[in-house]
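Bumping with the actual sequence this time:
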Amino acid sequence: MALDRMFWISKEQEIKEAETTDVYFLNTKQVLQKHRLHKKVIMEVYARSLPFEGNWGVLLGVHEVARLLEGLPLNVKSMSEGEIFLVNPRSVVYEPVMQIECYYDDFCLYENPLLGLLASNTGIASKAARYRLMAKDRILFSFGSRRIHPVLAPTSERAIFIAGFDGVSNVLASKLLGVKPVGTMPHALIQVFQDQKKAWLAFDDTMPKDVPRIALIDTFFDEKSEAIMAAETLGKKLTGVRLDTPKSRRGDWRKIIEEVRWELDVRGMKDVKIFVSGNIDEKTITELVDLVDGFGIGASVSGAPPVDFSAKIVAIEEDGRIVPIAKRGDVGGAKTVYRDIANFVDFVTLRGSEPPSQKYKPLLKDLIVNGKITSELEDSKKVREQVLQRLTAIEGKEPRISYKI
């Protein structure tokens, strides 16, 4: 059958109309409508565990969920875009990040795309936020869009930027974010010139002055030799050097980088920054954070595993009343979440209950009321500022969840 598109991707309108849902939701809608079971329910979205260490994540995708559900006859309460949420795998009581009040037959087709929007965005942002904390004040650049499907590049780069990275390399993502893309040259440029010096000089001759002169220094010779060559070739124009050394050639990478730093410093180039890239992970950052000026990180963030969010009915209409209901392994009743921000302790209780004290503030707030978006959808730069503030607040603390019925 001929396709009506060039690439195997969903169109925006197809997502909005829930055409990307799973067929069993379509079956469900048909059954409910045939048997005229138009029941009001309350659903909660939550995660019981995370695909990485720690019990916290950065919730992302809320804005896209708002656009997805806008116009439907339902109400949504949600944590804010970029909010920190907690999980406790050892407890049956979970922390809802989103709550949907609807007639299930009106909503069921949208459960699939809703979870997908939250799962991938949150997974990438949560992993990037961990790197942000580990890297301390070092520069973080995202070079990962080449490792994922191009249609996801803007989404991935946005999540990484919001989580605190200093820049992203993808051109379209940068345009949508309203920031300048970062990056200088690949090995291919140097290979085509077949000469490092000629490539660096050509780059300097071609690029505008506001593009930093960061020389890639591991193409043909060892890093120390090429660092010296770059210093002698570009002189005071040299902003930095980047080591993208393959793992098979790294040896003791820290000592190699120390050699580069020494050779630059003895030539009066202490201001020249050192960046490293290529298969950067948590271990690499921990080993080098005190030595290098920045990291270019790719697949370990852009390809981060999704957070396994679930959406379950916790209350249902019965004889004109909303009563608790839950499947096996879950707990019934609509819940609310309060946070003691100073100590990062969350309190989960039934909706309508009071918090333990005035220092606890509610996290679930109106996002959609009667199909209309009522919460301000702030731009990505503003969300990023808020995420960085939250990461500062959580650093050094032991976040936990308490609960009471």
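The tokens above came from a reply further down the thread. The first helix runs from residue 12 to 16.
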